[in-house]
Design a protein that fits this description.
Blueprint: H1 2-44, E1 49-61, E2 76-83, E3 86-91, H2 94-99, H3 113-129, E4 132-137, E5 145-147, H4 154-190
């Protein structure tokens, strides 16, 4: 009976040790993936200065109003604000500015023009309700654009690294408990 109990205990310890090691390895792989994808985007983001924006103008530019320029196939919302003591163009996110510098907001549904127009009108109505809001600007003096929402801010970085840290801590705790259990069972067997 005692020998079967020891064998079962060793199998359980081995399985727990494998679980702990697998958790640590998964956490290390996740840290590597996040370190090569999310961390560079966070470091590249220049929109670090939080400020208050005051709405100056918001309008929808249709295709015919953007003469001589590369025309988007969706309604274009254009928002001008006053931020950090200067006039600026508001973009929804960092990616909005990279995708189309003529538009402050790119609608979600680009397949149907009328659905996109309804979405843009809804966003315009929200801006007309709230004239003062928080925005993010770049610390450069000559920057004439601000963003409404940061995609790669400190909260995103913290949230991204929370679960791998939790996984790593859990794996290390399982390994430590198995090692502690082994040492206590050896001490008990010697007495």
């Amino acid at each position: 009976m005692g020998k079967k109990l020891v064998m079962a205990q060793k199998r359980g310890e081995t399985r727990a040790l494998c679980l702990g090691l697998a958790m640590v390895v998964c956490a290390a792989i996740t840290y590597y993936i996040l370190g090569t994808t999310v961390l560079p985007l966070y470091q590249k983001s220049v929109w670090t200065q939080e400020s208050t924006c005051h709405l100056i103008e918001v309008n929808i530019k249709d295709q015919e109003e953007l003469e001589g320029k590369k025309v988007p196939q969706y309604p274009c919302l254009w928002v001008n604000v006053s931020a950090v003591g200067r006039w600026a163009i508001l973009y929804h996110t960092e990616d909005t500015r990279d995708q189309n510098q003529q538009c402050s907001y790119i609608p979600r549904n680009l397949d149907n023009y009328q659905t996109a127009l309804v979405d843009v009108k809804k966003v315009r109505a929200n801006f007309n309700k709230h004239h003062d809001f928080n925005c993010f600007s770049a610390p450069q003096v000559n920057e004439t654009s601000v963003v409404y929402q940061r995609l790669y801010g400190p909260q995103v970085l913290l949230f991204s690294f929370f679960w791998p840290t939790f996984l790593l801590t859990g794996g290390l705790l399982i390994i430590a408990m198995v090692k502690l259990n082994r040492s206590l069972s050896i001490l008990a067997a010697q007495k």
